[in-house]
Task: structure prediction
Amino acid sequence: MKVEATEKIHEPLFHIAKRESVPLWQGIVVRAVAIVIGLVVCGIIVSASSSSGKNFFEVYASLFSGIFGSERRIWLALQDMALLLGVALALVVSFKMKFWNLGGNGQILMGCLACTTCMHYLGGKLPDAVVILLMIISSVLAGAIWAVIPALFKAFFKTNESLFTLMMNYIALHIVSATITAWFPKGTGAMAPIEYANLPVLGEGQMGKSLLPILVVVVLTGAMFAYLKFSKHGYELSVVGESENTARYVGINVKVVIIRTMILSGAICGIIGLLLSGAINHNVSSNMDGNMGFTGIMVAWLAKFNPVGMIFSAFFITFITRGMGQVCTDFGFTNDALSDIIIGIIYFLIIGCEFFISYKIRFNKKLLRKKES
Amino acid sequence: MDIFLAKAIEFGVIFLFGCIGETLTEKSGHLNLGIPGIMCAGAAGGCFGAGIYLTSVENPNGFVTVLLAILFACLFAGLLGGVYAFLTVSLRCNQNVTGLAITIFGVGFASFFINSVVLTLENASTLLSMAGINFFGAYLPIFDKMGVIGTIFFAHGPLAYLAIVIAILSALMLRKTRIGLNLRAVGESPATADAAGINVTLYKYVFILVGSAIAGLGGLCYVMEYMGGIVGSTVSSTIEGIGWLSIALVIFTLWKPDLAIVGSFLFGALYILSNYITGVTFVQTKLLNLVPYMVTVIVLIITSVRGKKENQPPASLGLSYFREER
Result:
């Protein structure tokens, strides 16, 4: 094909370039703008589609009362936030290694199941202290095993880990539902709370129930921050994440790092399972993970895998989730489908705004001027 | 037995739509975990299209109803796919995170939209189930004369055959045409494709949108054909489960649309097996539900252990492409 010499040279109107780094305030402003837009859209959708006659501003009153409305709500929100943060901490080690662990749900569920199995068979027969010890060991092991299976195949055969861990979620889910049926063949699939071997309650009311999970996660957050920032292991896993070849060249055993890190990741999910089953619900159900394995990904990713930043993103996501639940109740929506829609839209906006943090757009000024004249 | 096989094919078709949609998307290098949500959006759109037509016309025409439902299912699913494409292709956001957000949105949207918009149309639920049985369940008249074979292969509605046609066309497109070759290049190594003069962004957009539209038909197929137009409150959570299995099916069929036809029927059989099998305990039927996932994991392991080049996922699957980053 002959190319004409007089062919017009195509100049793009704008040009996208990667930013080296962004000042902290700029990152915060961009995210804040996205959140504000999201909240405005939320207010418009809710007040437009509700038949309760409440106005636009009452949406926000409901949203805030959902988590700050009473002491009980505050503690429940803190508990949710702690659990979510815990899961995100588990996921962040694998993500730093560029191991896409989408299997948080399954690892939590296996932790729940292991814990409840101990309570079901041993509760009341052995002293509570012994059972609790066994619960801790078995939950951690169950979570770790569920995570290390995909890790082994990833390390030795490069099996795609995101698809593998995704499937492991559903295998765990069906194992849990089959186990409940096996225990209670005539039941409805739901399980009554077990009275024995519950993890200790630290005080009165909702505060007492929520305090233990919160304290455990506070300790975990500190430990993970130190692990990622100061330990040799933390350094090695981020090198593996940046470039496997570099890691191999400097003498890091990549296989060992992958397996070790995933054991840690699964073990933390197992601990969350232990808290869910042993301290909060005292039983197991096939949706006990509350989809935190997925929401946790959002938490970790929004904070750019920084454990301290994750405290804020976990708070924000808990705020939106619980707040929207309250809004749906107050505005007379019978199911929480609307809340999912709003949460989805807010996610789109905060995911999209990351672009403006990592890239900048340079417009072609010459071309713009030509267009104007 | 023949009823079981017929039902397996009927259910498998839903998987087939989802699987072809996701295969095309993954071939462009994008792991779309939003497929469950997109299938839900397709179901909502299809019900909406059919519902509007049925409630506004005296004597609805079956062909027009099906066509409108298909059109609206593709439109709604395509729009949601467009959001995914814009976020991951243009804004280069993380594909896993975006996909999960799409799923959360899509499932909520379908549930809300069906309950608050579609079912508030006058007589909608009766008309939809009428259309489901008479129009979407309409089968070829030769079915009665062919005995068992007729029951298994020809007693299906129009969407089933559409799915198979789409699967065959996709397989031919991927393997025999220049567009297919370019698409595979984009998924394997976008930088190379870019250097060869292929418009990477265009290919990604087109195939994410087309893939989403096809997957949306899966949602429509579940509501209108398999459920016979009965729109219950658990529709979107069921479709979500089907959606995740469709993603599994892509792995199971090694990213090959022609294999997907067989694979989807197998998955359909496994999915409904627990309803038809007799002589097992309740616990065993529950455990049967995890067989499709187990099988997928085993296939995933075997293909990676054997390491044959043609059976691997597209090399750049899940990675954003930015031209200046080398």
Observations:
- Strands of chain A lie at 14-18, 359-363.
- Chain A touches chain B through 48 residues (CB under 8 Å).
